[in-house]
Amino acid sequence: MLLTQWEFYPYFGDVQIKSQKLPDVSAKIIELKPHGIIPFEINVYPFKNTVGLNSYLPVVITSWNNTPYYTSNNIYIREITGIEIIGGLKHLLDYAPYEKKELKLMLKLNKTKQENEKYSSVLMVYDQFGKMDSTNIYFTPFGKRISLKNGSEILDTLSTEFLPNN
Predict the structure, then answer these.
(1) How far apart are CA 47 and CA 102, in angstroms?
(2) Is residue 75 within 8 Å of 62, Cβ to Cβ?
(3) Does residue 2 have a pLDDT over 60?
(4) Residue 99 class from Cβ within 10 Å (0-12 exposed, 13-18 middle, 19+ buried)?
(5) What DSSP assignment string belongs to 76-97?
(6) Helix, strand, coil fractions of the chain, as percent rounded to 5
(7) In terms of Cα–Cα distance, which of 47, 48, 43, 99 is closest to 75?
(8) Taking the domains of the chain in order of start, what are their residue ranges?
(9) Which residues contact 22 (CB under 8 A, 6 or more apart)?
(10) What is the pLDDT of residue 51?
(11) pTM of the shown model
C-alpha cells in the first residue's frame, strides 16, 4: 500500500492542494519456498494436577519463538465451565529471536454443590498458529489446599525449570 504524507507548517496565505489518482499497483508471487520453521512451541504446566476443592491452582504456560526474527503471538486459554481463570483468557506476547516467555495464571473452582465430589477438567492452551497443549486438572476433597496467598507466592517464584513432578 502506498501512502502520501503531508506536513503543514504555519503559513500566512492561501494554500491549495491538488491530488492525483495513483496508478494501480499489483504484485505476483513468483516462487514460494516454505522455510520449514514451526514459529512457536507452547506448553502448559500446572503446579500440581490435583488440589483441594477450595484451592487456587498456579499454572505456568511457556511459549517460545523458533524463528530468527522479532514477532508476536496470541496465546489463548480455553474457557472451562465452573472454573475461574485468574489472569485472562487471551494474551498477546512479543518475542525477540528465539526468545522464551512464561505466562503465569491461576485457576479457581467456582462454588461447588457437593463438598465430597471430585471435579475434573482439561486445561487447554493454544496459539494463533494452531500449536496447542493441554493437561488434566482435578479439584478433590482430599487434595492439598492452596490458598490465594500461597498460590501467589508459588507463582512469584515458580519457573518451569523447577516444577515438581505431579
Answers:
(1) 14
(2) no
(3) no
(4) middle
(5) EE--BTTEEEET-SEEEEEE-T
(6) 10, 40, 50
(7) 43
(8) 40-159
(9) 2
(10) 93
(11) 0.72
Cell 507452547, residue located: 42
| pLDDT above 70: percentage of residues in the chain | 82
User: 40-159: which CATH number, 1.10.10.60, 3.40.930.10, 3.10.620.30, 2.60.40.10?
Assistant: 2.60.40.10
**119-163 pLDDT tens trace:** 999 999 999 888 999 999 999 988 899 999 999 999 888 776 655
**Is 56 within 8 Å of 100 (Cβ atoms)?**
no
Q: Which residue has the cell 484451592?
A: 55
115-124 pLDDT tens trace: 778 899 999 9
Q: How many residues does the chain have?
A: 166
Name residues whose C-beta falls within 8 Å of residue 157's C-beta, 6 or more positions apart in sequence.
none
Average pLDDT, the chain: 85
Label residue 51 exposed, middle or buried (CB < 10 Å: 0-12, 13-18, 19+): buried
